[in-house]
Write a structure and sequence with these properties.
The structure is a single chain. This protein is an all-alpha fold. Helices cover 80% and strands 0% of the residues. α2 packs antiparallel against α5. The radius of gyration is 17 Å and the shape is elongated.
Length: 98
């Protein structure tokens, strides 16, 4: 059985409040690129560390430029993860208390 409209609205509200901001991600990318802050912010610490290490081989700078185009997709993925987690939690709560 699917979630109610109220449940879906609650999820979207939480995604808006808890999800990553495009503006913040780009500000991190622009001003804190040398520590790959945008990747840490978007929940990708492993690739952030790899990116930092790759600056020593210059490939990291190309990767950094490519990230400017990848950030919107990373934000969508992170928001979808939040949606799925909340939907599972809401479904479990509904079964327990419904």
């Amino acid at each position: 059985m699917g979630l109610s409209t109220a449940g879906l609205t609650l999820i979207e509200q939480r995604v808006t409040n808890d999800g990553p901001s495009t503006g913040v991600a780009y500000l991190f990318w622009l001003f804190l690129w040398f520590v790959s802050a945008h990747r840490f912010y978007l929940g990708r610490p492993g690739t952030a560390i790899l990116q930092i290490l790759s600056y020593f081989f210059l490939i990291g700078f190309v990767w950094l430029l490519i990230d400017a185009f990848l950030i919107p997709g990373m934000i969508r993925e992170k928001r979808n993860e939040i949606r799925q987690t909340l939907a599972l939690q809401l479904g479990a709560d509904r079964r327990m208390f419904g």
